[in-house]
Design a protein that fits this description.
It is built from 17 helices and four strands. It is mainly alpha-helical and about 450 residues long. It has one domain (about 20-210, about 235-440): MFS general substrate transporter like domains (Growth Hormone, Chain: A, Up-down Bundle). Strand 3 and strand 4 (about 405-410) form a beta hairpin.
Length: about 450
C-alpha cells in the first residue's frame, strides 16, 4: 500500500468543491497523451501510405488491417481495462505499455523486408503486426491514459480535459503531418519506425516521473474471476441500465462510420490522387488542423455548462461542408475542406468524450473504455473502412506506386458518399438530447 500511495496524486479543490489539476498534472496529461497520439497518427495516416508504397496499392489490405486491428484494440481495452479496474491502478499499464508499444512499431516496420512474391503471407504478416501493435497500444493509451484522465477529473470540470483529450489526436495528426512526412522522405519507412519505437521506449521511462494514479480510485473485482469480469462487459448490461451512455455510443458509431469511409484513405488521396509529395501531403493535412484547434477550447465552455447538442449539430454541418469540397484540385480549397471536417471531428469527439465520462459507472472507467471502443472503433472501422475500399476499387483514381504496381486511390466519390452518410448522425443526437432534457429539466 505504501508503494501505491507513493504514486498517487494529491487532490486540490476550488471554492466550488471541484477537483483542480495543477500545472504539473496538466503537463502529465499533455506529454503522455501526445506520445500515444503520435503513434495513432502514424497508424491512421502513414501505415496506409506505407502499405501502398512498400507492400501493394491495394485498399483491401488497408480494410483488413483497419478492421482486425480495431478488434484487437478493443479486446485489449477490455483485458487491460479490467485489469486496471481490478487493481485500481493505471500507472503500471502506461509504464509497461509504452515500452512494448515501441517494440511492436519496430516489428511492424520489418514487414517491408519480407518476401513480396508471397503476397498472402505478406498481407497476413502486415495485418498481424498492426493487430499486435493495437493490442499493446490499448494498454498504454486507452485503458491506461484515457481511463486515467477520467479518474482524475469529475463532472463539472471535464470540459477543459475534454478539450485537451480532443486536441491531442489532432495535435498528433498535425505533428505527424508537418514533420513525419518530411522525415519519411529523408530516412525512409523502416528507419522512421525505428526512431518512433525508441521514442516510445523513452516515454515509458518518462512515465516513471510524470504519471501518478488517482488516490480515490477503488478496486472493482468480480468475485467470479478476471476472465468472467472481462467477458461480462460484452453483455452490455451497463448500456441496458444507462440509456444516456447507450445513446452516446450510438452517436459515436454513426458519425465515425462516415469518418472511417475516408480517413484511412486520406493520405493516399493526397499523395496519389492530388499528387502531393509525401512531405507536402503532411503539410496540407497538418496546417488546416492547426487553424481548427482554437475551436476545441471555445467548445469547452459550452460543454461545462451542459450545452452539448448545439456543438454536435454544428459539428455535423461542418463535417458535411468539408467533405463536399476537399476533393477539389486546388490547394486552398482542399485545405479549407480539411479545416472544416477537422473542426467538426474535433468538436463532436470532444463533446462525446465529455458526455461519456459523465455517464460512466464510477468504478468501471477502464472497462467502459472497452465499451466505447466497440462503438467508436470496431463498428466504424468494420463498416466504414470497407465501404471506402469498395468505393475506391470501383470508382477510384487509377495510379501506380513507387514499385510500379497499379492500383486505385480515393477520389471525389469517397468523400461525397461520406458526406451523404453524415446526416444520419442527427438521429441519435436528437434522441440523446431528449433523454438529457428528461434527466436535466432545469437546463
Amino acid at each position: 500500500m505504501a508503494d501505491k500511495n507513493k504514486h498517487t496524486l494529491e487532490i486540490h479543490r476550488n471554492e466550488k468543491g471541484l477537483r483542480v489539476l495543477t500545472a504539473k498534472e496538466w503537463f502529465f496529461v499533455v506529454v503522455v497523451g501526445l506520445a500515444g497520439q503520435l503513434v495513432w497518427c502514424v497508424e491512421n495516416t502513414w501505415y496506409p501510405n506505407y502499405i501502398y508504397s512498400k507492400i501493394a496499392p491495394d485498399p483491401n489490405i488497408i480494410s483488413w488491417m483497419v478492421a482486425l486491428s480495431a478488434m484487437a484494440s478493443t479486446f485489449g481495452c477490455f483485458v487491460w481495462g479490467t485489469m486496471g479496474d481490478r487493481l485500481a491502478r493505471r500507472r503500471p499499464q502506461m509504464l509497461i505499455g509504452y515500452a512494448l508499444w515501441g517494440i511492436t512499431v519496430v516489428l511492424f516496420g520489418l514487414t517491408e523486408y519480407l518476401d513480396h512474391s508471397k503476397m498472402f503471407m505478406l498481407t497476413v504478416a502486415v495485418v498481424f503486426g498492426d493487430c499486435l501493435m493495437s493490442f499493446i497500444g490499448a494498454m498504454a493509451n486507452d485503458s491506461g491514459f484515457i481511463a486515467w484522465t477520467t479518474d482524475i477529473t469529475e463532472e463539472g470540470n471535464r470540459g477543459k480535459m475534454g478539450a485537451v483529450v480532443a486536441v491531442l489526436p489532432v495535435a498528433g495528426t498535425i505533428m505527424g503531418g508537418l514533420f513525419f512526412g518530411k522525415i519519411i522522405e529523408k530516412v525512409d519507412y523502416f528507419n522512421f519506425f525505428l526512431i518512433l519505437g525508441v521514442f516510445l521506449v523513452l516515454m515509458s521511462v518518462c512515465v516513471i516521473f510524470m504519471v501518478k494514479d488517482a488516490p480515490d480510485l477503488t478496486e472493482n473485482k468480480d468475485p467470479k474471476g478476471f476472465w468472467h469480469q472481462v467477458f461480462s462487459a460484452f453483455n452490455f448490461n451497463v448500456l441496458k441500465e444507462n440509456r444516456m451512455m447507450k445513446l452516446i455510443c450510438m452517436i459515436f458509431s454513426v458519425y465515425f462510420i462516415g469518418f472511417q469511409m475516408y480517413f484511412s484513405h486520406l493520405t493516399n488521396f493526397l499523395v496519389y490522387t492530388q499528387h502531393y509529395s509525401t512531405g507536402n501531403a503532411g503539410l496540407v493535412l497538418g496546417l488546416p488542423l492547426i487553424a481548427a484547434l482554437p475551436f476545441t477550447f471555445l467548445c469547452s465552455k459550452y460543454l461545462d455548462n451542459g450545452k452539448f447538442y448545439n456543438v454536435m449539430y454544428g459539428s455535423v454541418a461542418l463535417t458535411i461542408a468539408g467533405l463536399c469540397i476537399v476533393w477539389v484540385r486546388s490547394t486552398p480549397v482542399t485545405c479549407l475542406g480539411i479545416f472544416l471536417f477537422g473542426t467538426g471531428y474535433m468538436c463532436i469527439y470532444q463533446s462525446l468524450m465529455v458526455m461519456l465520462k459523465n455517464h460512466m459507472p464510477a468504478n468501471m472507467h477502464g472497462q467502459s473504455e472497452g465499451i466505447r471502443q466497440i462503438f467508436y472503433v470496431i463498428i466504424p472501422m468494420c463498416i466504414g473502412t470497407p465501404i471506402g475500399s469498395w468505393l475506391i476499387n470501383h470508382f477510384g483514381y487509377a495510379m501506380h506506386n513507387e514499385l510500379g504496381e497499379a492500383g486505385f486511390s480515393a477520389n471525389w466519390v469517397t468523400f461525397i458518399v461520406a458526406a451523404c452518410w453524415m446526416p444520419l448522425t442527427l438521429i441519435p443526437i436528437t434522441m440523446a438530447k431528449k433523454e438529457y432534457q428528461k434527466l436535466h429539466p432545469e437546463q
